Each structure stands twice: as structure tokens, then as C-alpha cells.
Amino acid sequence: MSLQKEVMDKMKEAMKAKNTIALQALRAVKSAFLLAKTETGVQKELTEEQALKIIIKQVKQRKDSADIFLKQNRQDLADPELAELAVLEQFLPAALSEEKIEEVVVATIAKVGASGMKDMGKVMGMVSQELAGQADGKTISMLVKKNLMS
User: Fold this and answer.
1) What is the pLDDT of residue 82?
2) Which stretches within 18-90 are classed as H helix?
3) Count of beta carbons in the 10 Å neighbourhood of residue 23
4) pLDDT by residue (tens digit) across 37-66?
5) What is the DSSP code (8-state) at residue 116?
6) Cβ neighbours of 124 (radius 10 Å)
7) Which pLDDT score, from 0 to 100, does residue 68 have?
8) What share of the chain is helix, strand, coil (3-state, %, to 5)?
9) Could you give the C-alpha distances from 108 to 32, 65, 73, 114, 149, in angstroms and in order?
10) Burial code of 97-119, b = ≥16 C-beta within 10 A, e = fewer?
11) How far apart are CA 136 and CA 60, in angstroms?
12) Helix (H, G, I), strand (E, B), or coil: what is residue 73?
């Protein structure tokens, strides 16, 4: 089942269950899908990869907002963000462990022949593309730096 269809089905379930938080999160994703479709001016279907990128972006927004609210001691605002985050994370592929990410980073460094920090951009680009949706950029960046410096 396509990611867009899955989001729509979950949205219908949330409406029937009167789950306002899930409904709000799913409507935001649907809106982002529609914006992406009309962005180019041509009404075409999104690829699974594009849909996944949109969901990843929505998840990142929720995480960032929740972090900011928690730093400002606003638990009342952070709770809905965290609840929406939980709803959206079910559409992401399973996250890889740090060890698996490091294996990919080491293999990519060897493949590219990266020798220092000047090659970080090349390595980051390849690893990020390979692990799309399975690892966040901060973790990848940290592991690439660690392995390029050693």
C-alpha cells in the first residue's frame, strides 16, 4: 500500500475514533502532500521517496518543537507535539541502531576513499541517501566526524 493511501486510511480511522491529536497530525501530512503535488504546477502523484521525505520533515518539525517547548518548561505545549510525533513515526521505516549506521558510514568512507574532514560532505551525502528515513542527520553527522577524525 502506498504511503499516501496509508495516511488517508489512518486519517479515516482517527476520524471514526474521534482521535483529535492523530487527526491533526495526519491532516498536516496530507496538507504537505498536496502542497508538494501542486508545487511544481503539474498535478502528478508523489513517489514513495518524496512522500517519505515529507513525513520525515513533519517528524523533525514535531521533535524540534517539543524540544523547544521542553527547554522553556512548557510541558502543556510539548505533550501534543510528542503525541503527534508518535502518530507520525508509525509511517517511518524501522530506525537502525547506531552500530548498523556506523557500519554503513565506515563502508562508505572506504568506498569514497575519504581521508579527512574535507571529504565529510561527500560521505554525508551518500550515507544520508542510503539511510533515508532510517537514521537522523545528527547521528549520521556525529558518526561520520568520529570516523573521519580517527
Assistant:
1) 94
2) 20-39, 48-71, 75-89
3) 19
4) 887 665 678 888 888 889 989 999 999 999
5) S
6) 18
7) 96
8) 75, 0, 25
9) 32, 32, 41, 8, 15
10) eeeebbebbeebbeeeebeeeee
11) 9
12) coil
